[in-house]
Amino acid sequence: MGMLPWRAYPALLLPGCRGLRWSLATGIALAAATAGEPSATATPGVGYRLQLDVITEGMDGDRCWFHPRAGAIPGPVPTVVLTMQRWNTRRSDVFYPVASGETRDLGRTWTDFPEHAATLGRHRLDATREEGICDFTPKWHAATGRLLGTGHTVFYADDRLLPVRPRHTVWSTYEPATRTWTPWARLALPDRPDFANAGAGSTQRVDLPNGDLLLPIYFKEPTAKEYRSTVVRCRFDGTALRYVEHGTELALPVDRGLYEPSLARFGGRFFLTLRNDQAAYVARSEDGLRFGEARRWTFDDGTDLGSYNTQAHWVTHADGLFLAYTRRGANNENMARARHRAPLFLAAVDPERMVVLRATERELVPNRGAQLGNFAVVDVNERETWVTTSEGMAPGNPAAFGANGRVYAARLIWDRPNPAWNQH
């Protein structure tokens, strides 16, 4: 297979940070001083260095890579498998088969990225309609030793998104020897009208010590407007994924409700970040199933986070909880048509107050005119966590600001090992 060269952009590494490092302890102290009150968190400090790599770049006609998300297979040097899909920039949410490539030297070189049309592509339903999958996210399942990916289905007619459609949560596993994926299969959910459109697209799951999965999904009746979100406890035996139960159904009667939920476990509790058209929301749970009321994400000074109508995801270290997000108000009015989905930021979270510590905010990936909001997080090993994203080359003219379809890995290299790296 062809090898893609590794490139780093040192000028983009944590601008303004002494020694290109940042400490959570310092950030909390600064945030408390800014807010005029002490933080309630007792989180000890954790420092990291940021390295921004470009995995690949360029357009394929009117298509660019989108949804880059990675899973790591443990080993002395882990194998990182990156999945992504071509996006038709001239059409809304039109994606082609999932492709994947891998690196076995921590990103110095990558294989090529063939599409898996036979197993993770579209199925034709009739002369005009097709069913495919999208928003796919791989994650290592330690109990079975399998790389398990989850996502959901999407329906097209004449290569255009169907406005009213069902949706199903799907899964697939990776075959390292052949670098292929098993055919995607549906997760059977309870027979309810609102589960006729239920997907796990772009969500982060948590695997429990006994091997059970806590998989966030969002759902609604196909003709309804508002989504609700919940966490499904699933059981995976290496060959089949099975529904066991689901928890609190979180609702918000604002626009399209709560959707694209992502779950994290930190300090013995579980945290859920959720998308809404007007703001981002957060909820907390003791067991990962039963959640309190969702509330708007704010900075620790009480102001709105400014993230809206897009995803947010978690970065977790045994010594700190972080949120990755995009937001308005970041000298990014050139991104207004793309819902201010650049730059991509990372900041520490106070898990007691459930607020983002403003003074800890750092830019992971710069604003070059392309949207960065469809991203993901992977714990590579105890020393590195990567945030992967791509330059979505629409709307507008991103190339005018320097974008060219880059796929990025923003690598957080921890000062101290993360003993919980494979337990999130």
Describe the fold and architecture.
With 424 residues, this protein is mainly beta. The protein has a single domain, classed as 6 Propeller (Neuraminidase), CATH 2.120.10. The protein is built from two helices and 32 strands. The strands form seven sheets. Strands 9, 10, 11, 12, 13, 14 and 15 form a seven-stranded antiparallel β-sheet that branches. Strands 2, 3, 4, 30, 31 and 32 form a six-stranded antiparallel β-sheet that branches. Strands 16, 17, 18, 19 and 20 form a five-stranded antiparallel β-sheet that branches. The chain is globular. The protein starts with a strand and ends in a 10-residue tail after the last strand.
Summed up:
The chain has 424 residues and is mainly beta.
What is the terminal separation in angstroms?
Answer: 32 Å
Briefly, what CATH class?
Mainly Beta
> How many strands, what sense, and barrel or not for the largest sheet?
7 strands, antiparallel
How many structural domains are formed by the residues?
A: 1
The Rg value, from CA coordinates, equals 20 Å
* Shape label: globular
Number of separate helices: 2
CATH architecture: 6 Propeller
- Please state the structural category: mainly beta
List low-pLDDT spans.
1-44
Strand content: 35-45%
Mean pLDDT: 91
Question: What is the quaternary state of this protein?
Answer: single chain
CATH topology category name: Neuraminidase
State the total count of DSSP E strands.
Answer: 32
Helix content: under 10%
